[in-house]
Amino acid sequence: MMRSTANLSAIERTMIFTLRPRADEHARPDGLFRDWQAAAWFAQVEWPADFEPVYDWKMQTSVAIRVKIVDEVTERFVATRAAPLVVELGAGLSTRASRLGLSRMQWLAVDLPVTIAFRQQFALEEVSSQQIAGSVLETAWLDQLPPAQGEEVLFIAEGLLSFFEREQVAALIERLRTRFPGATFTGDVMGEANRANAGRRLEAIGAPAHWFVSDEQELADLELSLVNVWPLIAQYPHRWGELAQWAADPVLRNSSLIFEARL
Known about the structure:
Helices cover 33% and strands 17% of the residues. The protein is of the alpha/beta class. The protein is globular, with a radius of gyration of 17 Å. Strands 1, 2, 3, 4, 5, 6, 7 and 8 form an 8-stranded mixed sheet that branches.
């Protein structure tokens, strides 16, 4: 049965835009990961026609590398915590729980009500997962989280923060820090060097980005205690071809940054 995306807003449809790269990565013989669930889910959804002109190998590579790095952060976190709680913000059609298969963790997916309803149409094969419907920019969803020590909590904001204004991101971080001090926060941001390229692509599908950073100092300015920062273009250079040389440029290096931080 094919799931139509006709009733989804432009922002809500971005969950399909990031599902395909994982399905395509799964199909590669040299893929960075295997994701059977993403492949199965993508086969059941309608690919919007307006996505096709802006989807290319660079988009697929960017998402696949980002997924791989956040997976590694998650695996390390779970391995070093007694009772890990993982919370995916703006989870969309994330398949991370099933892809990693980490039985020791409790996993929560937070997203808008329409997105959660769309997600629940699929057969879920996730580890101790719970779906929470609500905007991450509000506070009600926080009251649905189980009690936990901050050091035991990992918040994942993958492919999410650039859709917000800086002030909204700052407010979100402060709420998380207040409720779960010492928690780990991982995600990604787009750089000013990517405004013309990625910004144009997102505009074309009706989901404009709002927050672009110059470098990781702008993350530190939000009182995030940075542990690791990975310039996307510097990871897995064999996948970037000639574009890998951008990593040596101090501006282009920051076109997309993946980070791990403490709250």
